[in-house]
Amino acid sequence: MPAGRPGPAAQSARRPPPLLPLLLLCVLGAPRGGSGAHTAVISPQDPTLLIGSSLQATCSVRGDPQGPTAEGLYWTLNGRRLPPELSRILNASTLALALANLNGSRQQSGDNLVCHAQDGSILAGSCLYVGLPPEKPFNISCWSKNMKDLTCRWTPGAHGETFLHTNYSLKYKLRWYGQDNTCEEYHTVGPHSCHIPKDLALFTPYEIWVEATNRLGSARSDVLTLDILDVVTTDPPPDVHVSRVGGLEDQLSVRWVSPPALKDFLFQAKYQIRYRVEDSVDWKVVDDVSNQTSCRLAGLKPGTVYFVQVRCNPFGIYGSKKAGIWSEWSHPTAASTPRSERPGPGGGACEPRGGEPSSGPVRRELKQFLGWLKKHAYCSNLSFRLYDQWRAWMQKSHKTRNQHRTRGSCPRADAARREVLPDKL
Amino acid sequence: MSQREGSLDFQADSSISPLPLLEAKIHQTHSLARLLTKYAEQLFQEYVQLQGDPFGRPGFSPPRPPVAGLSAPGAGHAGLPLPERLRLDAGALAALPPLLDAVRRLQAELNPRTALLRRLEEAARRARALGAALEAVLAALGAEPREPRPEPAAAAAAAAAAAAAAAGAFPAKLLGLRVCGLYRDWVSRTEADLGQLVPGGPA
């Protein structure tokens, strides 16, 4: 019987039947004619082939004088009848088929090649496995959550499309000793990932690689060497609070707590803050917050709701010199800046009665600031706080002036007074 | 009461009402059968989809490989006395789990890491649960219990099914189709038969 002719590099892998009590099959009796699938045999049975290769198959009806003959038999592949010119009758009981340039299998359980009698009944079937051997997996990346576990992700070679079921196995071992271990918890963060939950050593490097195997072959990734301490990440900082800075309309204060799982190790941890206006999708990132657990955002718009998130990088853990891995962002926390009490260009309901002289408000303010500074400044390195104090004082005094000028007729100022939160400085 | 069987004749004497607890149990078991009929249909559809065409195509009429120890509800099933029907239902539900387990093992090779494997496992559990509930109803009604299926025979049924499928992937697919079809048919049959026990159900 002509066998399938796979392409040059293919291994036509026949799966041997499992060791099962075939005697029971005999005890139950030979398949009856009415069961259809047992009145003919297709060869080869379940071949594995490379994409683009050819296949020659035969359907041989059993020697039943009353049964069908090769005349009238036909083939279907995945339910579709194959053109008659692909078939030829070899003898009275055998119909041959020649397929060329095979496409990849439609389903991982195999393409269904079926031999039919003239009346359409199924006489026999065989599943074709047409695909590609796996390519080398690459781009392995790993991280450890709080030094307790290790999760790795990789990219399958050729973007994973082999048309055959391909098994990926993540292996790891201690670099200088120990046996190979196999990761067991797959698909934890996506289809090509694995999680090692425990029994990991610190201060000693691991070698990690991925093996890909299917019916047509196998491939192994490059080995990644890493120390668990160099790939540590942690939980997002909990208890993120955002609050106003007194009445300062362009500032918000952000405070958080170190992630508790690593709180005793985060001496050199870095934090990042990002914030955005409520109805915007653009985040602004504040980098280099160093290892503080509070920060003040400045230059914000007055009367605006902001969403704020914080994340942590456990840099320098146990003396690691590597960059560390940022945690996820904390849940967004929102707060609003106070509304502006001073009329800006173009707006505000609180126009002052007399109007301002045209010498310019900035210049006038600076003059006032310098005058105030002479009276109150006593330590030059407290300039930032001093500036805040001055601004707070200016706002208070401006409010008082407005009350004298326009008694109760400034709805925005009134609203601002209601919105002001207790000073948390 | 049927003198021949010494048990309640459900068809002839509809004036006898089951006790409230028994009635609740019958309702419950009927509801379970109804739910499992839906799941069985879903399992069947998921199964044919994963095997690929022509499985699942309208008009697909494959050969039906013999499945040791279980056949489809016969054409005469509906004409049998209700107790007999329920006994046959219980017998089928007891035979199904090892067959579903065998199909799951075969599909673990053909369709590894698919949700189908979990569904087949669930189906086996559900068949056991419905079978046990039905046996309890039968016992409460005083019907004669079905002949117990010896364990080795149940295991042999699964092994024989697996052996038959060892002929190749296509026969394995056919066997699974047959078993999923039988599961669907028998659960649906059980729902219909129990429906006749439910007060107010069809006579």
From TrEMBL, chain A:
SMART domains (alphabetical): FN3
Boundaries of every Fibronectin type-III domain copy: 136-231, 236-340
Places the protein is found: Secreted
Keyword vocabulary terms for this entry: Disulfide bond, Glycoprotein, Immunoglobulin domain, Phosphoprotein, Receptor, Repeat, Secreted, Signal
InterPro entries, sorted: FN3_dom (IPR003961), FN3_sf (IPR036116), Growth/epo_recpt_lig-bind (IPR015152), Ig-like_dom (IPR007110), Ig-like_dom_sf (IPR036179), Ig-like_fold (IPR013783), Type-I_Cytokine_Rcpt (IPR050379)
GO CC annotation: CRLF-CLCF1 complex; external side of plasma membrane; receptor complex
Pfam families xref list: EpoR_lig-bind (PF09067), fn3 (PF00041)
Residue ranges, compositional bias (Basic and acidic residues): 414-425
Segment forming the signal sequence: 1-36
Region described as Disordered: 331-362, 398-425
Ig-like domain ranges (all copies): 17-121
SUPFAM superfamilies: Fibronectin type III, Immunoglobulin
Annotated PROSITE patterns: FN3 (PS50853), IG_LIKE (PS50835)
Top-rank taxon: Eukaryota
Coiled coil: none
Family of the protein in this entry: Belongs to the type I cytokine receptor family. Type 3 subfamily.
The protein's name in its UniProt record: Cytokine receptor-like factor 1
Lineage start: Eukaryota, Metazoa, Chordata, Craniata, Vertebrata
